Protein 1
Amino acid sequence: MSKTFDRYCSLLFACIGAGFMVESRKISESSYGSTVGPDLFPFGLGLLLVLLSLGLFYETFRSKQQQETPKRALDYKRFFIMLAAGVLYGLLLEELGYVISTFLFLLIGFQTMERGKWLSSLLISGFFSFGIYYLFVEVLQGTLPGFPTW
């Protein structure tokens, strides 16, 4: 990409992130049975987007030379696998629960991006899905879809 394109995109994304932060303050601060309110996640994502955008904006001025990257063909197969996995993740989240659906989504994503390395994919997917569930539900007293009750 060009520095000019990166500069304008960083400003656009900073504005979008700021909009997320402002609008998330309009959401109620707590929900029933949870000490973590629904406004926290969108606010955090907006803040992260603003910080990353400012970092990109800074990098466009700091870099001295522009490197030409060789053009590659688009990988539609991987894109559609990840798109289907994301849609299935959203549809099955309530049915399978957070831990199982997140584990499967991450496993599919890791194997789509880099075939092989099954052990590391299984370990990372497992630790991440269980770790986030434990952190959010037990430590922060939030609520996530549990395990299925078939």
Protein 2
Amino acid sequence: MNQDWEDRVAAAWAAFDDYAEDEAPAFRAVIDALVAELPEGSALGPFERACAWDSTGRSDRAVPLYREALDLGLDGYRGRRAKIQLSSSLRNVGQPEQGVTLLTPELDAPSDELDDAVRAALALCLSSLGRDREGLSLVLGALAPHLPRYQRSMGNYARLLVESGG
């Protein structure tokens, strides 16, 4: 889509926090109006609609839309965002195992600014499955590079949580 459309979508999301909880339908209507401008079959439409449903507390409505966006070929940065958000929504609707399946390959994807979000969402899915040590390992591993000190030891502790059970 063109830059004007992208700017208007960004502006809509920038104003999201200005909506009261009971104004969720009004926010979704803004997103729906923007989506209506997209060409038929655009993966951006279901993605933006999924984000709007998800952000207004309706993971159940977001899940099929994220799937549709990915099925339509949403890739790159937005595709990775869709996988992160879909896995979180799957967890919220009681399907964390599908979230683990979706996000595990993302651990080996080319690195970008979403790496830590992948690990955080995957850790939550793992925790929902009772696999807390694996989740903690992911979170510590994501945190370690950001620490001013103890990066090496925290990285080792993260690894040892899953390697030796310690």
Protein 3
Amino acid sequence: MTDTYQTTGAPLRLSGLRTVSLDDVVESAALMRRVDRKYLVPAATADALIDALAHSHAALQIAGRASTTYRSTYFDTPTFASTRHHIQGRRRRWKIRSRWYVEDDLCRVEVKTKNGRGETIKVAGPSSPERYGRLDGAELAFVESVLAETHPELSPSDLVPSAEVTYTRATLADLSAGTRVTIDWGVVASLAVGSAWIDDDFVLIETKGRALPARADRVLTSLGARPRSFSKYAAATSLLHDDIADNDIRDIRGRLLHCHSHSTQGLR
């Protein structure tokens, strides 16, 4: 899939933070089973959050970098069942993607499911950059083994690549609390029918923790931010497909979230 729009986003004030290694984050705050809370906020709010968390959080640094470029290809049914389940707010839902960490040239296949208690459970299987965006062979076998327990009604071999989402991510970790905060900017989604993107002046913050809100959530609340149901993938597909409900994004459509449809050759 080829992007028809490129974003840049605003750099964040990360240089003043202590740094932490990937190994330390994996050991203390991997949180493969967690509660996610998402916030779409101005970049200035993200900087205020970083300043407020400076004494408790450290910035993930890999090979001297404070951020990493992500490319993710999502797989769905031809009728976009994964997107529809998200928008319908089903407590048990799934998301499958091939993810490439560009600067590190690392690739893996990931399965994210939500259980009846609202917890997000993520499992990852090995892949390779040359197999990025593919769901066959070992990657398909891995997905089948995971979903056989959680979603036996789903046939992974019927899934097709439906969108590619790219962005830059910075990660903050509170090792003592075992929680993380990710900040994404320059978000662009490319589909066969067009592209969608988050406004350059806004970032997507996600807190990854336990049932009770973490310190980052409390700071964001004090800054006037509120958590919302938001999926980059589901937002893009509902924005570009008129037959998919846009419940989650109706209030930000055309303001924080934009698209270009190949069929209309215009912005909506």
